[in-house]
Write a structure and sequence with these properties.
The complex is a heterodimer of chains A (about 110) and B (about 425). By secondary structure, chain A is of the alpha+beta class. Helix content of chain A is about 20%, strand content about 35%. The radius of gyration of chain A is 17 Å and the shape is elongated. With about 425 residues, chain B is mainly alpha-helical. Chain B has helices at about 1-20, 25-55, 60-85, 120-140, 145-170, 185-200, 215-235, 245-270, 275-290, 300-325, 335-350, 370-400, 405-410, 415-420. Classes of the chains: A alpha+beta (about 110), B mainly alpha (about 425).
Amino acid sequence: MKLITAIIKPFKIDEVREALSSIGVTGLTITDVKGFGRQKGHTELYRGSEYVVDFLPKIKVELAISDDSLDSVIEAILSVTNTGKIGDGKIFVSDLSQVIRIRTGELNEDAL
Amino acid sequence: MQIKKLLITAFLSFVSFASFAEGIDSGDTSWILTSTALVLFMTLPGLSLFYAGLVRSKNAISVLMQCFAIACMVSIAWVVYGYSLAFTEGNAFIGGTSLFFLAGIGRDTIAPDTTMPHSLFIIFQMTFAIITPALVVGAFAERMKFGAMCLFSLLWFTAVYIPACHMIWGGGYLADVKDFAGGLVVHLTCGVGALVAAIVLGTRKGFPSSPMPPHNRTMVITGAAMLWVGWFGFNAGSSWAADGLAGMAMLVTHISAATAALTWMTIEWIKQGKPTLIGIATGMVAGLATITPAAGSVGPEGALLIGFMAGTICFYATQAVKGVFGIDDSLDVFPVHGVGGIIGIIMVSFVGVQGGFLGSSAGETWIPMEQLLIQLKGIVVIGVWTAVATWIILKIVGLVTDLRVSEEEELQGLDVTEHEERSYDLV
């Protein structure tokens, strides 16, 4: 099983959700985060002074999937989040050793 | 026979009650009742929100607490001794003790030389007394200990506001100064008090190298908007009547606010490339502060001029206080209220003369250059008194307790260190 962590631009979240639903993904978690990579921050004004805000708002999407859906999930996320501009984000794939459904106690593949 | 006696008694009581109330004009009284609510609204929550939005989120509660606590303390002090010392006869600088605890003021007592109940005049003036020390909060925000602030504000109200009020509005030494709604009594006192407090307390940690932007600009403009609306009570209510003076005062107040706001916004747009919300809101406040002493004499054209001057001069003053002089008057009280008040007081000499340059074509006349000297006297007396008194009070309070929180506490934020509360409990 794999844990997919994707950092994306906030306005892409609805498209990501729809793309994942259409390939059968049943659940995911999102968090509001801030960060930067190659995309520079922006400047803001207060009392005539400009200051740089380095951290940009992003959304982190996390989902647990089975190994055989890995390629289709990555493809689905990439297809809607790629704008061609700096700051599109990154996808991290990590191995998931165990998954438990809290309500029923189902394990691993049965819990996905 | 019994019923006849009863009816006659009832009729006579009614008649005597009615003649007691003859001095009260219900129109005037209604308007001043409303103005009182509007001016209190300026502090609670207008100024409170304006200031809270301007500070960092870790200090939002501390600012709200300070404004609220000052409102409560001054209210009580006003009743106990403040009103008496401000408005009764005493000497040139302070009033008398005859109305301590408002002794003898009843439901039917009428305020002298007015057409409203005395109780109403007392609370109307109280709202001015409340907002003045609350304005000073902007100078020492984000670093003053709450206890020290409470003691300071009470002493400052007593030794600065009350004498200023008595000298100008209570028939004291500066009775010939024309200050319609508080250019000196409110704005110069709070401005100079703020400047001195900012200097004595010292700069915030990280000033001026670290940017300390407002945590909630939406809150700032919400508060500012409340100040605009509330100021109609502040200036138009200062006519003490529902009449043409009030109407014109309201009109010119509004014009000055709008003109100053646009002027400030435009200067920013040209100078810095973008018009900002903080800029337009601050410009508006400067316009309101500047028209305050002149609202009773100036006409619409005069208000346009005064608004323009406020937006321009106060803009550069704001840049100068922090940028040139390095004084951390955190929320820019002196350049907006102090400088604004001074401009308005001076301009009254020229712009308010009946039939004169941009006047409102009603009221008294005076000779501009003569009045200017009187206005300047007012500025100097109130300015120097406030500066010296503020400095002394801070030194006295400093003997009893630390004025500033520790460096560690300042970094953590006053909300959690002074009040053990968090403003936003999100996640």
